[in-house]
């Protein structure tokens, strides 16, 4: 029998933000525990050789332990680090990233890692994806519980999101309840309400809401339209997405507009832009401004360069660089992003940026894309979490751009790609590594690496 509870000495934090302790010769990962602490804990799971515990009581707290601001901390799977002071979070992430770079790219990083953290690490998220679930006979709306794909925490607040998001949560929940329809149950694959996605314009202080449901009659949406309109005037657009898929992602196969505009306007740095209900926009607008400015600095543009912005989304990096380059070519796989990139270029009066719809790996084959605008002087890469497609690495290197600037939301795929690139073409070296704390209180970050060709 497991002696429960047990006393654990926490040695360090794991890459997932869990306390690491030794117990009966095994490594135990401990929720809500910090390095240097002694805690009373309970084993909650043993799976595939891994033992997980949760803290019941902190006996000796770490000096940098703080009271989490959010009432849902510990249960909600959203923020894992709120019990650690913000300064220590930043220190820890920087140390973790440095160790990763040194371990995976030995001898290749002889520059210090530079960091940009937030002055006020709250209310920073411009997009939140909530899920509905049946919770003890009530309709729950919130983020997934820590360690659960099925159940959500019925959120009252979310301090990492702007106030309008916390104001919307009870209204959306009450409107869904007023419809008389149940939340979608992912185990039984039945029920109506699935997700509520809120996007916020930081500069305009407005919001756009997308409610995702299973197929159903429009009258079930009537209370949602009425109550959001009446009670949260900052919401300028409401969309209804329908998803009959089994998988639990906030993706809609069909989208209808229920009221308002088809886009919101926002601004990052000097770039104004429109975005709709499906576009990717960096969720932390303040630090996106810092990251885009760093990309521009690292590109060292004089006005004569041809720049390729691969994985360009709605073209925001392209538009930030275009005024300082000869020409910019953005490549993006989603056609609605490309259409918005073109609109956004017009909105900013930019005429030297072109956008091409297609997969980067296809358009790079045989260097095809570089025939469009000529040899690249700069290449910007900003792929999704999975990193670069294997087929993209050789053509990017063969183009011999003097500077490659790579922005990544996943340090692990970033170092794998860098390893492959530096091995294949030793003429490149790492000039600068910067990281941006886009996601305070979570383990995530954005990293920017600048490669130069000797
Ligand atoms: C991390 S986002 C970058 C967006 C943009 N650079 C920005 O800062 O707003 C990655 C983008 O790559 C696009 N994408 C994903 N796979 C792609 C592929 N194989 N080829 C081209 N674009 C792709 C996604 O649609 C998404 O817009």
Looking at this protein, list some descriptive labels:
single chain, 454 residues, alpha/beta, OB fold (Dihydrolipoamide Acetyltransferase, E2P), Rossmann fold, 3 domains, 8-stranded mixed sheet, 6-stranded mixed sheet, 10 helices, 22 strands, 25% helix, binds S-adenosylmethionine
Description:
The chain is α/β, with parallel strands linked by helices and 454 residues long. It folds into three domains: 6-65, OB fold (Dihydrolipoamide Acetyltransferase, E2P), CATH 2.40.50.140; 98-118 and 284-453, Vaccinia Virus protein VP39 (Rossmann fold, 3-Layer(aba) Sandwich), CATH 3.40.50; 127-267, OB fold (Dihydrolipoamide Acetyltransferase, E2P). The chain has ten helices and 22 strands. It has helices at residues 86-104, 163-178, 222-231, 285-299, 316-321, 335-347, 360-364, 368-373, 390-398, 411-424; strands at 6-9, 12-13, 19-23, 26-31, 38-47, 50-60, 113-116, 127-135, 138-142, 193-201, 206-213, 235-242, 254-260, 264-268, 271-275, 306-310, 327-332, 353-357, 378-381, 403-408, 428-436, 446-453. An eight-stranded mixed β-sheet has the order 7-21-22-20-19-16-17-18, sandwiched between helices. A six-stranded mixed β-sheet has the order 1-5-6-4-3-2, with no helix packed on it. Strands 9-8-10-11-12-13 form a six-stranded mixed β-sheet, covered by helices on one side. Strand 16 (306-310), helix 5 (316-321) and strand 17 (327-332) form a beta-alpha-beta unit. Helix 1 runs parallel beside helix 10 and helix 2 packs antiparallel against helix 3. The longest helix has 19 residues, at 86-104. It is globular, with a radius of gyration of 23 Å. The termini are far apart. Residues 280, 282, 311-314, 316-317, 331-334, 337, 359-361, 382-384, 389 line the site of S-adenosylmethionine (SAM). Residues 280, 282, 311-314, 316-317, 331-334, 337, 359-361, 382-384, 389 line the site of S-adenosylmethionine.
